[in-house]
Specification:
Elements lengths: L1 H16 L11 H19 L4 H9 L7
Length: 67
């Protein structure tokens, strides 16, 4: 059930991100972010929850910001 929910939300996000002919970018990136959050929450019910801070830590952990 949770995997199906995550797959559904990821499919919706992918559809929003796939530009149609002539479109440059998605018109509502906040909707895509919400869909990805829902997919992450669904997967969290299986593998354990990750907070937004955990994800940001993984993304920005490899950046070296000025010294």
């Amino acid at each position: 059930m949770a995997l199906a929910a995550a797959a559904d939300r990821l499919g919706e996000a992918e559809a929003w991100l796939a530009p149609e002919a002539g479109d440059a970018a998605p018109t509502a990136p906040e909707l895509v972010a919400s869909m990805l959050r829902d997919a992450l929450d669904a997967l969290g019910s299986i593998a354990g929850a990750y907070s937004a801070d955990d994800v940001l830590g993984l993304v920005f952990g490899s950046f070296c910001i000025g010294k």
